[in-house]
Specification:
The complex is a heterodimer of chains A (271) and B (284).
Chain A: E1 3-16, E2 19-32, E3 36-40, H1 47-55, E4 62-67, E5 70-71, E6 79-82, H2 94-98, H3 100-104, H4 113-122, H5 138-150, E7 156-160, H6 168-185, E8 188-193, H7 196-202, E9 205-209, E10 216-221, H8 236-259
Parallel strand pairs in A: 3-8, 3-9, 6-7, 7-8
Antiparallel strand pairs in A: 1-2, 1-4, 4-5, 9-10
Helix pairs in contact in A: 7-8
Chain B: H1 6-10, H2 29-33, H3 39-63, H4 74-83, H5 85-117, H6 121-136, H7 143-150, H8 155-178, H9 182-190, H10 195-232, H11 238-247, H12 251-279
């Protein structure tokens, strides 16, 4: 069984006060074991909705999604989600935040102590165990949230614009760090972002979503060598791929504008 | 375990913390967290003000021979506090007992009600007007009625104290429990948390700062009601002594009782600002 994530034409409509919001519409995707896939698209095209649905946080209205061959209808231990913001619990220190999933799963946290320490060391956070989230920078907080997701060793990581709130330089560092973690842990990663540059640098395959309602626009295989040094983002081939994906997105927006269905996020009140 | 969390099921993913107003309607969190006295300079300043006020008062009263029934000198009040303490001590214990007993019952009911009601929005909407009614009606007014039913003993006062403090604790806790943070609930849920785990590990800690404020306000309201119901009837309690001494115009003794009441009030404040610092300092 190759496809650990198999999304078949899922849709989700929210009932909001201003009428129904079609977040995603018949979106499909397949991710092989150990693969790194990115999903890009303009803001508000339902990328977060897709990941929350795959995590089993909310149901889809249509279509089916399978994780490890089983239909998703509740959260599973094999899946870890990393949120847009670090989403740390401010009343817990770093160690307690990192061991929070184990606590919820009623595991004996003490048994995992060594592994947690190792994971913290891997993201250069040794010595911060007793600090509280507010004492850490944004980049450090997001590193804690990565360790938290790895703490119970899920096979699949779903990442929802995890570095979107960080400044550009920190973001680049975090991307490189993430590639290192991926190589070491061999997880299957589905990474959502609105930054095409980031998607191309990180992923083997980039799914492009249309503006809302988000549906499949195109899939690009990223034919860049591995391992990818940071310098690769300054090479001609990298730029060409980024430009090609950008052209695709611009075209999607143009098409929606022609049809009069485009909802610009710059003027929208609904996220 | 429910497959989906009711709140997550239909909500658009959201990463903002939502609190009705930043704090509650009865927000006095400033008094809990922001008064910090550091260093000899601030301490000596505060002491100097006390010395100037008390000393000035003493001086003026002696200079103009103000009689005790008009205003007692601080020294006379202090003397009365010390000499009448053996007499006042049983009354101090009675008022403290009314307060503690009524408060424990009222605050527990208020807290549990808040936790349960906020989970059932319909019930919350139905019950809240009655809680507001209890808050807006001085429960002191009920004491004479309660006395007719229960007699001139300590029980009407305990009930009055719990009726005064319980709703205060409840209304503030409700504000706390209504703070929702969809992303944090989603976080716990993504690890398979049960409804109870989400309550214990996310909703309750989020609500804790407001609960502590509620417990503080409830304590102060309870004290007011305990002293007030002492005044309404019976022959015991600090409130009773306040009416007794004022009717005799023995103002030094009167003020001595006021100081005893203030000591209880200040202790309540110190207790909960300590608790707040320990358990809710993350909000700072």
């Amino acid at each position: 069984m190759d496809d650990v994530i198999d999304v078949q034409k899922v849709s989700k409509v929210y009932a909001s006060e201003r009428g129904p919001v079609h977040a995603i519409d018949r979106f499909s995707m397949k991710v092989r074991e150990g693969d790194f896939v990115a999903i890009v698209g303009p803001s508000g095209c339902g990328k977060t909705t897709l990941l929350w649905g795959l995590t089993g946080l909310h149901p889809f209205n249509g279509g089916r999604a399978y994780i490890l061959g089983e239909e998703v209808n509740k959260p599973r231990k094999e899946v870890g989600i990393i949120f847009q913001q670090s989403n740390l619990l401010p009343w817990r220190n770093i160690y307690q935040n990192v061991s929070f999933p184990l606590e919820i799963m009623k595991e004996n946290v003490a048994e995992h102590e060594e592994r947690i320490k190792e994971l913290l060391d891997g993201v250069e956070l040794t010595g911060f165990e007793n600090h509280f989230p507010r004492e850490l920078s944004g980049g450090m907080q997001q590193r804690v949230s990565i360790v938290r997701a790895l703490s119970y060793d899920p096979k699949i990581l779903l990442m929802d614009e995890p570095f979107g709130a960080l400044d550009a330089y920190t973001r680049d560092e975090m991307d490189t760090l993430l590639l290192g973690i991926w190589k070491k842990t061999q997880k299957t990663i589905a990474f959502v972002t609105h930054r095409i540059e980031e998607a191309v640098y990180l992923a083997n395959k980039v799914y492009v979503m249309t503006p809302r309602p988000g549906t499949n626009s195109a899939v690009f295989d990223i034919d860049l060598p591995r391992p990818r040094p940071e310098g690769i983002t300054m090479e001609q081939k990298y730029f060409e791929i980024v430009a090609e994906i950008k052209r695709r997105i611009v075209k999607d927006v143009e098409k929606q504008k022609e049809e009069g269905v485009y909802q610009s996020q710059a003027y929208s009140t609904v996220t | 375990m429910d497959a989906y969390d009711k709140q997550l099921e239909e909500e658009i993913p959201d990463f903002e913390e939502h609190a009705p107003g930043k704090h509650g309607a009865f927000d006095i969190s400033a008094t809990v967290s922001s008064v910090k006295i550091h260093g000899w300079k601030q301490v000596s300043g505060i002491l100097a003000v006390a010395i100037v006020i008390l000393g000035g008062l003493e001086l003026l009263i002696r200079l103009f021979h103000v009689p005790e029934f008009v205003f007692p000198a601080p020294s006379a009040t202090f003397k009365a506090l010390v000499t009448s303490f053996p007499n006042n001590y049983p009354h101090f214990l009675i008022t403290l007992g009314e307060l503690v007993a009524g408060y424990v019952v009222g605050a527990s009911i208020g807290l549990v009600l808040a936790a349960v009601l906020t989970q059932v929005p319909y019930l919350e909407k139905v019950i809240t007007p009655y809680i507001l009614l209890l808050i807006c009606t001085p429960t002191l007014a009920l004491v004479p009625l309660l006395m007719l039913k229960l007699g001139f003993n300590i029980w009407p006062r305990i009930i009055a104290v719990s009726l005064a403090s319980g709703p205060m604790v409840m209304i503030n806790s409700v504000t706390g429990f209504r703070r929702t943070d969809l992303a944090k609930i989603a976080l716990a849920k993504s690890y398979g948390a049960t409804t109870f785990q989400i309550f214990r590990k996310i909703r309750f800690p989020l609500a804790l700062p407001m609960i502590i404020v509620g417990l503080l306000v409830g304590g102060i309201f309870g004290l007011i009601t305990a002293v007030g119901s002492d005044m309404v009837g019976g022959k015991m309690g600090l409130g009773n002594k306040i009416s007794y001494y004022s009717s005799l115009a023995r103002m030094a003794h009167f003020f001595a009782i006021i100081i005893l009441v203030a000591i209880i009030g200040i202790s309540i404040w110190i207790l909960f600002s300590r608790v707040g610092k320990k358990w809710a300092s993350w909000t700072e």
